[in-house]
Amino acid sequence: MQIALINYTDQGGGAEKVAVAALENYRKEGHDARLFVTIKQTLLPFVFELPKPVFPFSILHKCKIQNGKNSRYNVSLSQHFKNIGFLPEMIHLHNLHGGYFNLKELPKLSQKHKLVWTAHDSWPLTGHCAFQMDCKGLETGCKACPDHSRYPAIMNGATGKEFVIKRKSIERSDIHWQLVSQHQEEDFRKAFPHHQFSVVPNTIDLTIFKKGDKQLARQQLGISVDIKVVLLNGKYFPQNAYRDFEKVLTVLNFYKERKDVVFIFAGTANVKELTAFENVRQLEFVVNPETMALWYQAADVFFHPAKAESQGLSVMEALACGLTVLASNLSAYKDKPIEPLDSIFGL
Questions:
Q1: Based on the number of CB atoms within 10 Å of its own CB, is 149 exposed (0-12), middle (13-18) or buried (19 or more)?
Q2: CA–CA separation, 278 vs 259, rounded Å?
Q3: Which end is more exposed in the chain, N or C (fewer Cβ atoms within 10 Å of the end residue's Cβ)?
Q4: pTM of the entire structure?
């Protein structure tokens, strides 16, 4: 069977890991599966870039024009598949936000192909944001958005229109949803009661993410055995509304005189606000999972002050490596053995 997977990119966060893993699993099962992305960052085979929109991409990315009169600037999947001679029986959707996908094409696609959509966040439900958190905008159709700059950003005043078109397009489509948790399924079932739903929790490779020798891991990474290591994994910067950066700064200020405590940010590089702290080390995105596992194994504590999460792959990875995890009190973690964030002040 020919299967097309769609995601914004092939490397970055949890959505990218899951999309690539799904691609590999489909191909192991003998299917002709291909992952189509807007930006290809890896050398993985069977991952292909979609045509770039004719609208200036930097502007499109900021505006997130995904419907209405400007939909001609988005990629037409039907036309692209026809152009390359690839006729998938199933399309497995992942993250569609990023300004590249025409939402109005969904009903037409669902008539020709089986549509499966793995929702990595709440974007399909909202006027624009990935997680609504404490916002009550859904109750009014996101007509008066308090923060249109929250990722993924949208033009001011466009959230209500985006909400209506998104809901109509999805409701008119035959979609089988794959959701990562029970609480996420409840939200989606309420919005789209006539669709099909499956709860398919994300998984991690336990042959890679497992307990290891801390001293050996530190030797390999060049970390002293005489210090305490606090690890953070993800994109920590002031503009990320889904991470509690103020909490991060509070903790760093608390420990700034401690030479025996080091904070390592994996996936957060060159953040100006973090460079002021001598006991902070910033790493580029760690591509290799075996290397990421080493960082978990070398750490003493995994600190994860998230404000929103669907499931939390990094939390799962840290727990699998035997780390003490200090995380926010979120529904996504209710079945996981985590400790309160403020436990960080007891090192």
A1: middle
A2: 9
A3: N
A4: 0.88
CATH code matching the domain that covers 2-199, chosen among 3.40.50.2000, 3.30.70.1050, 3.40.50.300, 3.40.50.150: 3.40.50.2000
| Best CA proximity match to 149, nearest among 92, 85, 64, 71 | 64
Question: 214-346: which CATH number, 3.40.50.2000, 3.90.980.10, 2.120.10.30, 2.60.120.590?
Answer: 3.40.50.2000
Token output for 85: 């001679």
Can you tell me the distance from the alpha carbon of 16 to that of 153, in angstroms, rounded to the nearest whole number? 20
Radius of gyration of the chain (CA): 21
pLDDT digits (tens, 9 = 90+) for 223-282: 999 999 999 998 888 888 999 999 999 999 999 999 999 999 998 888 999 999 999 999
CA angle 94, 97, 101 (to 5 degrees): 85
